Amino acid sequence: MSTAELLAKSESLIRNYRQPPLVMVRGAGRRIFDAEGKSYLDFAGGIAVLSVGHAHPKLAKRIAEQAATLMHASNLFYSDVALQYAERLTRICGFDRVYFCNSGTEANEAMFKLGRRYFYEKGEKNRTQVISTINGFHGRTLGALALTGQPKYHAGFAPMIPGVSHVEYGNIAAIVNATTADTAAIILEPIQAEGGIIVAPEGYLQAVREHCDKTGVLLLLDEVQTGFGRTGRFLGAEWSGVKADAISLAKGIGGGFPLGAMLIREKVAAALPTGSHGSTFGGNPLACAAGLAVLDILEEEDLIANTVKVGAWLKEALQSVAHDHADCVAEVRGQGLLLGLRMQPGFDAVAAVAALRGEGLLASVAGGDVVRLAPALNVTVAECEEAISLLRKVLPTLKFASA
Ligand SMILES: *Cc1c(COP(=O)(O)O)cnc(C)c1O
């Protein structure tokens, strides 16, 4: 079908997204192809999801085999695949137990419920308040949305569920001041990713951990975007040596298959007793087979080492791009293969991403003024060189529009 014929059908979708008029039909490695056959170097990475690239043969084969074996059994029973994946994932993350779901939002909903129910089970029934951060992003369902510290996502959906306050990210004093006898949990991201690739300042996560240890408040880390090797460690919080009481994972862990997880320490395991939480699809054999295959690929292809190596190369190259185009690029941010170019005021990140797409490079916008690059963890230096030369070609063509 032609692009025009396909686009005519877009009237059947609700208008919540703002896709450009192109239709993706196929992917291979770090490239994706539209219905016209045009190829794009994919540094949007499906929003930091395509950890092993498009159509990885091992992942595709494992999913196909599992689909032909057992796709869904429901949580009325265990499944062989979910048990194997639970053991592997908890071990590699250094946590004790896992709850499987289908998205990052759901994993954060589970953490929010865990935070409240933990104190309820302990008989501290007034401890229901959660501290989150301004500019943080935790998802779009009403619980996760209440945690999300970006008012633009709240518009029209009031009232938010009560009991959530937002404090400045990176500021430990703000957390200490906001903590009361009723505080149950603190939730934040090791890097505010959707918020514009804002890396936690040195010592911040350690200070939050110490504060939580002192007050008994639970530390919940949203590793949906920073997890699964994206920053050059399996978890983003490993850079600071901080271990949370629970973490959420999604995006990269399924390599494109919808999969989310909440991992917890044993000390909070009693918070979600039998019957307290659940999901029809969560942890189904097909999703867990995808998760296992992506873990296998991560280990066999040493993708974290590749992320460290290629990420360092890319960041340095971006810094030299920023230096040469200081009129339009203000700053390079990020860690590993979660990198961003913050545009100067007056240079529109959305327009920059559109211009790059026109030249065959996909990126995405974060935080309004940041061009985010989050290619697959198996991206090569040669592909990064190609991305850099496209950036160098496109940046001089961007127009200044008063801020
Ligand atoms: C993407 C994202 C979410 C939401 O995940 P969904 O799978 O879209 O529900 C939550 N938290 C962070 C940090 C994210 O990057």
How are the secondary structure elements laid out?
Elements: H1 3-8, E1 24-28, E2 31-34, E3 39-42, H2 45-48, H3 57-67, H4 80-93, E4 97-101, H5 104-121, E5 129-133, H6 142-147, H7 151-154, E6 164-167, H8 172-178, E7 183-188, E8 191-192, E9 198-199, H9 204-215, E10 218-222, E11 246-249, E12 260-264, H10 285-300, H11 303-324, E13 329-335, E14 338-343, H12 349-358, E15 361-362, E16 364-366, E17 370-373, H13 381-394
Parallel strand pairs: 3-15, 5-6, 5-7, 7-10, 10-11
Antiparallel strand pairs: 1-2, 2-3, 4-12, 8-9, 11-12, 13-14, 14-17, 16-17
Helix pairs in contact: 3-10, 4-10, 11-13
The structure holds pyridoxal-5'-phosphate.
Pyridoxal-5'-phosphate binds next to helix 5.
Summarize it.
Helix content is 36%, strand content 18%.
Bound small molecules, by name, code or SMILES, are: pyridoxal-5'-phosphate
| Regions with little confidence, pLDDT below 50 for 5+ residues | none
Strand runs, count: 17
Major β-sheet annotation: 7 strands, mixed
> Which value, in Å, is the CA radius of gyration?
21 Å
Give the neighbour order of strands across the main sheet: 4-12-11-10-7-5-6
Helix content: 25-40%
| Percent of sequence in beta strands | 15-25%
End-to-end distance: 41 Å
**How many alpha or pi helices?**
13
What is the approximate shape? Answer: globular
Mean pLDDT: 97
Order of helices and strands: HEEEHHHEHEHHEHEEEHEEEHHEEHEEEH
Helix-strand category? alpha/beta
